[in-house]
């Protein structure tokens, strides 16, 4: 089989790139290890920056997001019983759109199906060959038979555990990582959200976040130990802990109910450099991970897709190499800033086992500065709504 761009991974990154290229008449094939149904069971954040929203519209997949997504003009930050609001509108003249990643991924699948996109599911043993040559190809096994796809370029959109990143030789690849000494226990419940904006809460018992998917679907998190398992937490224990970590004003009106999903995610910051090796380009989680505190996971993928999409169009339509040549540099420049924001927000709001009395005072001073200082709020708001591409 032959295609112009072989895309490994049918998560949001791979699907979005494929749809955008298709709309420009550029042919792609996506190889996905799992089934569509499996990919759609993954529950992930759903706070979209303008850059992501614009790409969805450009791909022709923005309708449901525009109809059903919620515009958020600000967020609440709580510290013990105290809380304040950072206005994205006043400080950064912008907003974010709350629309679940599951829904957005479903919209992308539906559009790829409607436009006859080629997605090969349940593939094994994907190997990228000759990425540093002029004639790369990708092999994979499906139904016990090995297949080969010849292509001009390979987009590695296969997430943190994929094969693309590891295809770049260890002598070339540099990896930067920070592991945090806790996880987030997340619960999805068919209950109305406690507030109409997100509440990020620091407390002496640890961090908590009140988020949402729609009017009757809430997503809540509490910071937990890495040794905890979701089953260690009954629903009642979860709700009690959440209430103890948010100001009474919110706790008193929290509507609880049975959890319909409960999972624990570790927190990690990770970047690999370079993001391009010859004709292989890494996008999204394949190249970088952020802790979820700043809601940047999906949004960092968006800037990669933006740069790679325009670079591939310039190459295929006008024979221009510059976008492809500078892809890694441009993508990384923005990624590191998103890493910085996710890291500082994580440090600001969590309990750390090694935190001494001085560190705690510093954390309090940081939060109070954000509460009282307009310039600090501007920095927060500009980062939260997304730095320009
Ligand atoms: N071969 C084929 N497909 C693979 C392989 C492989 N060896 N390894 C992984 N995959 C597939 C996974 O099954 C998954 O569907 O690649 C896809 C990667 O998707 P994601 O992990 O969702 O990564 P990405 O598309 O970059 O999405 C960005 O934003 O909110 C964050 O982390 C969150 O998923 C989110 C990410
Ligand atoms: C979520 O809704 O799952 C969510 C929202 C904001 C975050 C992280 C997760 O920062």
The kinds of small molecule bound in this structure are:
adenosine-5-diphosphoribose, P-hydroxybenzoic acid
Radius of gyration: 21 Å
> Strand order, biggest sheet?
6-5-14-15-16-13-17-20
Overall tally of domains = 2
Taken as a percent bin, the fraction of beta residues is: 25-35%
CATH fold type of the largest domain: FAD/NAD(P)-binding domain
Give a concise summary.
This protein has 389 residues and is α+β, with helices and mostly antiparallel strands. Helix content is 38%, strand content 28%. The protein has 14 helices and 20 strands.
Descriptive account of the structure:
With 389 residues, this protein is of the alpha+beta class. The protein has two domains: 5-72 and 96-177 and 268-346, 3-Layer(bba) Sandwich (FAD/NAD(P)-binding domain); 180-267 and 350-385, D-Amino Acid Oxidase, subunit A, domain 2 (D-Amino Acid Oxidase, Chain A, domain 2), CATH 3.30.9. It is 38% helix and 28% strand. The strands form four sheets. The chain has an eight-stranded mixed β-sheet with strand order 6-5-14-15-16-13-17-20. A six-stranded mixed β-sheet has the order 8-2-1-12-19-18, with helices on one face. The chain has a three-stranded antiparallel β-sheet with strand order 3-7-4. The chain is globular, with a radius of gyration of 21 Å. It binds adenosine-5-diphosphoribose (APR) and P-hydroxybenzoic acid (PHB). The site of adenosine-5-diphosphoribose has 28 residues, from helix 1 and helix 10. Adenosine-5-diphosphoribose binds next to helix 1 and helix 10.
Notable characteristics:
single chain; 389 residues; alpha+beta; FAD/NAD(P)-binding domain; D-Amino Acid Oxidase, Chain A, domain 2; six-stranded mixed β-sheet; binds adenosine-5-diphosphoribose; binds P-hydroxybenzoic acid
């Amino acid at each position: 089989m032959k295609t112009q761009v072989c895309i490994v991974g049918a998560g949001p990154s791979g699907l979005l790139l494929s749809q955008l290229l298709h709309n420009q008449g550029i042919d792609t094939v996506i190889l996905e290890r799992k089934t569509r149904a499996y990919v759609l069971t993954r529950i992930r954040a759903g706070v979209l920056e303008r850059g992501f929203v614009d790409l969805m519209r450009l791909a022709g997949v923005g309708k449901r997001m525009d109809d059903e997504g919620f515009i958020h003009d600000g967020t609440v930050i709580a510290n013990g019983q105290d809380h304040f609001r950072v206005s994205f509108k006043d400080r950064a003249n912008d907003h974010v759109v709350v629309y679940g990643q599951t829904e957005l991924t479903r919209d992308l699948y539906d559009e790829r199906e409607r436009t006859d996109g080629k997605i090969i599911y349940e593939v094994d043993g994907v190997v990228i060959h000759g990425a540093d040559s002029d004639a790369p190809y990708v092999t994979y096994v499906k139904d016990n038979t090995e297949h080969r796809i010849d292509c001009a370029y390979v987009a590695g959109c296969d997430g943190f555990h994929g094969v693309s990143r590891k295809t770049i030789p260890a002598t070339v690849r540099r990896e930067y990582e920070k592991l945090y000494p806790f996880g987030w226990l997340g619960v999805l419940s068919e209950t109305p959200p406690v507030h109409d904006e997100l509440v990020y809460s620091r407390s002496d018992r640890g961090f908590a976040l009140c988020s949402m998917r729609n009017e009757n679907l809430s997503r809540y998190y509490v910071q937990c130990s890495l040794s905890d398992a979701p089953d260690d937490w009954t629903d009642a224990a979860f709700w009690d802990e959440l209430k103890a970590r948010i100001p009474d004003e919110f706790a008193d009106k929290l509507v609880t109910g049975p959890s319909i999903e409960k999972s624990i995610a570790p927190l990690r910051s990770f970047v690999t450099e370079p993001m391009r090796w010859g004709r292989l380009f890494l996008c999204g989680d394949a190249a970088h991970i952020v802790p979820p505190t700043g809601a940047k996971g999906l949004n960092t993928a968006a800037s990669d897709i933006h740069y790679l999409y325009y670079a591939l169009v310039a190459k295929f339509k006008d024979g221009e190499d510059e976008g492809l040549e500078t892809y890694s540099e441009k993508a990384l420049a923005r990624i590191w800033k998103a890493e910085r924001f996710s890291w500082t927000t994580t440090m600001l709001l969590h309990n750390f086992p090694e935190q001494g009395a001085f560190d705690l005072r510093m954390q309090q001073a940081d939060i109070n500065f954000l509460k009282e200082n307009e310039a600090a709020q501007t920095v927060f708001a500009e980062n939260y709504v997304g730095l320009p591409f």
